[in-house]
Design brief:
The protein is mainly α. It has helices spanning about 30-40, 45-50, 60-70, 75-85, 85-100, 105-115; strands at about 15-20, 20-25. The protein contains six helices and two strands. Strands 1-2 form a two-stranded antiparallel sheet.
């Protein structure tokens, strides 16, 4: 007898971004993750890998997250974001990317760490 396999399809998580009175939708379908891996040369299939990505790779991740809905302006929007962002804003974007890609795991981590995103806590890893 063959095992029964069922998959539950859920809506693709998105993040809305407003920049210079324009609205953008960020998403990370697997095709965008593949693009991010090509751009960074890093494996990005686990929360641990996303969590520990070096800061200088975040523009490539944001660009990849813009491709599904804004491929024609992904480079321009990414450059605008990173030309005016603060370190605190960078942490918020990093947390949003992790939440988009791993919503269930991030919800569990946030529950364990309270309302503050565990991504922003120093010396914390998702495996602790």
């Amino acid at each position: 007898m063959n095992p029964s396999i069922s998959l539950k399809s859920e809506a693709l998580p998105v993040v809305s971004l407003k920049l210079d009175n324009s609205d953008y939708t960020l998403s990370l379908p697997f095709t965008s993750v593949i693009e991010a891996e090509k751009s960074t040369g890093k494996s990005l299939k686990t929360l641990f890998e996303w969590w520990n990505v070096e800061t200088h790779y975040l523009p490539a991740l944001v660009r990849a997250s813009l491709i599904q809905f804004h491929a024609d302006v992904a480079d321009e929007v990414t450059n605008k974001i990173f030309s005016c962002i603060t370190t605190e804003g960078l942490s918020e974007i990093h947390a949003a990317l992790c939440k988009m890609n791993f919503p269930k795991a991030m919800a569990q981590l946030e529950e364990l760490h309270g309302k503050q995103s565990p991504v922003s806590q120093e010396n914390t890893s998702p495996n602790e």
